[in-house]
């Protein structure tokens, strides 16, 4: 089956120079080292330790903190200290996506290497609670967090870049890393907007308990032009062309109602830019508000076109039907 998108690392797309934080393939040394570290898991909350407790962090939640620690600072395993306790009730768990402001430091030199999300001039970072998608230490840092938490984490090399280090950030194979993160939101798993009325003549949608859609095609010819209808209207930011969006989606063929692709098949949200998918799918995202659920009926010309899909399951005459839950903009399009 053709796949529109892959589960991609969230923090990689937001931090620019830090794309390599999570952009390595499974064949890379640092990814392999992290993946084979069996001493840590996001199945449990990470405990504090002498290293994370020793980091002094001052300032109010939401404001860029002042961070001091005696370097070199290291830890045998990742340590996590909550320096400000939030009041949120939704706790981050495996596969959840967490929005944070963050500062990152070399544990060896004490020098700041990353800062983002503290004001309107820089974007928040989004970290997935999944050590196969993120630096393991960062995934563990946000696991168990609630909105309003300020978390200090000390990450040893084995839970970060492994034996490869990261020269672009000045991190060697022997360097631990120190991060301070303010948890701004736990991204919802499904659209949270207000229900809208169904549109006659278009497919109908029923939702399972977990929010996964079932799509029923009407007994009618497929429309020849692009149809986009909002099933739920969210109250979040408006998606702009070029934004990277976190969402869940399911796609079926109009001709027989058969599902050919669904992000619901694997845990966790997908993320990709509006310009990185077929034309009609991108059009279904642009202009929508975060929290919305959208139905898109996409004619062949704005789907896979005359070539169809590489595996042949979608032909040049196939109309596609998608339901999208738009839950976050994880990277805003660059402004001119």
Description:
This protein is mostly beta strands and 336 residues long. Helix content is 9%, strand content 30%. It has helices at 10-14, 29-35, 50-53, 136-142, 279-285; strands at 56-58, 66-68, 79-84, 97-106, 112-116, 125-128, 150-155, 177-186, 194-195, 204-207, 213-216, 227-233, 244-253, 259-262, 270-273, 293-298, 320-331. Strands 9, 12, 13, 14, 15, 16 and 17 form a seven-stranded antiparallel β-sheet that branches. Strand 10 and strand 11 (213-216) form a beta hairpin. The two termini are 38 Å apart.
Give the helices and strands, then pairings.
Elements: H1 10-14, H2 29-35, H3 50-53, E1 56-58, E2 66-68, E3 79-84, E4 97-106, E5 112-116, E6 125-128, H4 136-142, E7 150-155, E8 177-186, E9 194-195, E10 204-207, E11 213-216, E12 227-233, E13 244-253, E14 259-262, E15 270-273, H5 279-285, E16 293-298, E17 320-331
Antiparallel strand pairs: 1-2, 3-7, 4-5, 4-6, 4-8, 7-8, 9-12, 10-11, 12-16, 13-14, 13-15, 13-17, 16-17
GO molecular function: peptidyl-prolyl cis-trans isomerase activity
Biased composition (Polar residues): 37-55
Keywords: Isomerase, Rotamase, Signal
Share in β-strands: 25-35%
N- to C-terminal distance: 38 Å
Q: What CATH architecture label of the largest domain applies? A: Roll
Please outline the major beta sheet: 7 strands, antiparallel
- How large is the count of helical segments? 5
In sequence order, what are the helices and strands, one letter per element?
Answer: HHHEEEEEEHEEEEEEEEEHEE
Number of separate domains: 2
Broad structural category: mainly beta
Report the radius of gyration as a whole number of Å.
Answer: 21 Å
- Stretches where pLDDT is under 50 for at least 5 consecutive residues are 5-10, 12-40
Q: What is the CATH fold-level name of the largest domain?
A: Chitinase A, domain 3
Q: Tally the beta strands.
A: 17
The global form is elongated
CATH class category of the largest domain? Alpha Beta
Helix content: under 10%
The overall average pLDDT, rounded, is 87
